[in-house]
Amino acid sequence: MKRVKAIYPGSFDPPTNGHLDLIERGSKIFDELVVAILRNPEKDPLFTVNERRQMLESMTAGFDNVSIDTFNGLTVDYALRVEAQAILRGIRAISDYEYELQMALMNRKLQPGLETVFMMPAAKYSYLSSRLVREVAQLGGPVDCLVPDLVAQKLREKIDVANKFTDADGNARVELVTERKSKPRKKKS
Ligand code: PNS
Question: Ligand 1 pocket: which of 7, 11, 116, 131 to mutate (most atoms <8 Å of CB)?
């Protein structure tokens, strides 16, 4: 019997309840699902790739056909490397559609044998995005219903640390000593 393996690529900075909802749905229709975190050196993420990996691993510990991995380069190349036949992506609203369609068609151009499968998360998550979660958390709003408890806790820790080192205007509290003090001259005897 043919087994279908899919990858679910994304930034997951941080993973949200919407991502988890999609992972759960994906795990029901695919034999194997790999959640693949993009290692993007150009972005300035809130969480390191390792932190995101750990959060996703805890969140998905209950699914025995879901695993977490990281990748760089083209998504289609990664999919081929892990011998996946499909790319899973979520569509929350019409506004997602144009970008997702463009990406799916480009991926098909690059790798015609690979299918993109779109799934919709539960309607209650249709407004939810990692960017908004980061913004709400950074401005001190509650994120408890938007992300799993573990992610909410990690967000609080991150933001506490950030606040410790910056003032209300976002300026560094601690002045970094960048210049080397000149050596005191020896007194002439
Ligand atoms: O969670 P995101 O940020 O919407 O995920 C976007 C992602 C990682 C799926 C997309 O940026 C991607 O596939 N990047 C890898 C590089 C690549 O394959 N680019 C061509 C896509 S058509």
Answer: 11
pLDDT digits (tens, 9 = 90+) for 74-122: 999 999 999 999 999 999 999 899 999 999 999 999 999 999 999 999 9
Q: Is 145 exposed, middle or buried (0-12, 13-18, 19+ CB in 10 A)?
A: exposed
Report the C-alpha gap between 186 and 189 in whole angstroms: 9
Q: What spacing in Å lies between the alpha carbon of 104 and ligand 1's midpoint? A: 10
Ligand 1 site: residues with CB under 6 angstroms?
9-11, 38, 74-75, 103, 106-107
**Catalytic: 130?**
yes
Q: Helix, strand or coil for residue 110? A: helix
Average pLDDT over residues 45-72: 97
Q: Which atom belonging to ligand 1 lies closest to the Cα atom of 76? A: 18
Whether the model pTM is above 0.85? yes
